[in-house]
Design brief:
Blueprint: E1 6-9, H1 11-16, E2 22-27, H2 39-51, H3 54-57, H4 60-72, H5 80-91, H6 98-110, E3 115-118, E4 126-130, E5 136-137, E6 146-147, E7 153-156, E8 161-165, E9 170-171, E10 183-188, H7 196-211, E11 218-221, E12 223-226
Parallel strand pairs: 1-4, 1-12
Antiparallel strand pairs: 2-10, 2-11, 3-10, 4-7, 5-6, 7-8, 8-9
Helix pairs in contact: 2-5, 2-6, 6-7
C-alpha cells in the first residue's frame, strides 16, 4: 500500500445521511482458507439470524440503512448489510477465509454492511460520494462490469471504484481479500443513525475476530474529513 491516509466525505454523501463513516487499515494479515477459531462466533451469529432476527433487523441502525436506500430512489432494494444477515439466517454463513468471515460476522452482529478491500494496490484518499452515473466496476462474484446510476452512493480513490450502493450493492471484485492479501482497508460507512463510536466499535469487533487467527495484525484508524476541509 502506498498512501491511503484519510477518508473524504463529499457534501452530497453527507446530505444523504453519511455522517460518521469510519475506516481503518488492518495490517499483518495471514489469510487462511479455514478458521476453526471462529466456529463458535459463526454458530452464534447463525443462531441469532435464524432464531431471533428481529434483534438486529428491527433496530434504528437497520432502519437508517433502509432510509438511505429510499433517499437514493431504491425503497424496494434491501441494503447489502441486511441482505447478508438474511442470507445467514436462511443458509448459514457462507465461509470464505478467516478474514472475510471475521468482518462478515462483525457486520451481521451490528446490523451494518462492512466493506473490506485488499489495500496493496491502493493509493490516494478514499472518497465517499454520490455517483455521477456511469462509474464502472465488476462486483464481487460477478464476471461483467456494472454501471452506477446517477445519485448512487459509492466510494473509491481517484482511480478505482471500490463499492457502489444502489441496485448493485457490492464491493469491487478486483480488490477482494485473497490468500495473498496482507493489508486491507476496512470501512464502516454507516448511516445517519450510527454514531462514530458505533462504527468504530464494529470495526474493532472485526479486528478482534481477525486477531483470533492473525495474532500479529495491527489496526490503524484513518482520519475522516469533509471535502470543505481539503486544501486543493
Amino acid at each position: 500500500m502506498d498512501s491511503v491516509t484519510k477518508i473524504i466525505v463529499r457534501n452530497d454523501a453527507r446530505e444523504l445521511g453519511i455522517t460518521n463513516p469510519v475506516g481503518c487499515i488492518v495490517s499483518g494479515l495471514d489469510v487462511q482458507s479455514e478458521a476453526p477459531e471462529l466456529d463458535e462466533d459463526v454458530a452464534s451469529i447463525e443462531q441469532l439470524a435464524a432464531g431471533s432476527p428481529d434483534r438486529i433487523l428491527e433496530t434504528e441502525v437497520v432502519d437508517g440503512s433502509r432510509e438511505i436506500y429510499a433517499r437514493m430512489g431504491y425503497p424496494g432494494v434491501v441494503p447489502d448489510g441486511e441482505m447478508r444477515f438474511n442470507l445467514i439466517g436462511r443458509r448459514g454463513l457462507n465461509r470464505h477465509n478467516n478474514v472475510v468471515d471475521a468482518y462478515n460476522i462483525a457486520g451481521a452482529e451490528y446490523g451494518l454492511g462492512l466493506g473490506m478491500h485488499d489495500a496493496a494496490q491502493l493509493d490516494g484518499d478514499i472518497i465517499i460520494r454520490r455517483a455521477n452515473g456511469g462509474e464502472r466496476m465488476v462486483p464481487l462474484f460477478r464476471e461483467s462490469h456494472r454501471e452506477a446510476q446517477t445519485g448512487d452512493l459509492m466510494y473509491g480513490t481517484d482511480r478505482h471504484t471500490l463499492w457502489i450502493a444502489g441496485e448493485i450493492g457490492r464491493d469491487s471484485d478486483a480488490f477482494k481479500v485473497t490468500a495473498s492479501t496482507d493489508t486491507a482497508l476496512l470501512l464502516a460507512v454507516g448511516n445517519h443513525k450510527t454514531s462514530e463510536e458505533y462504527n468504530r466499535t464494529v470495526c474493532r469487533r472485526a479486528y478482534d475476530l481477525i486477531s483470533k487467527t492473525c495474532p500479529d495484525a495491527t489496526l490503524e484508524f484513518l482520519d475522516v474529513v469533509d471535502e470543505t476541509m481539503v486544501v486543493a
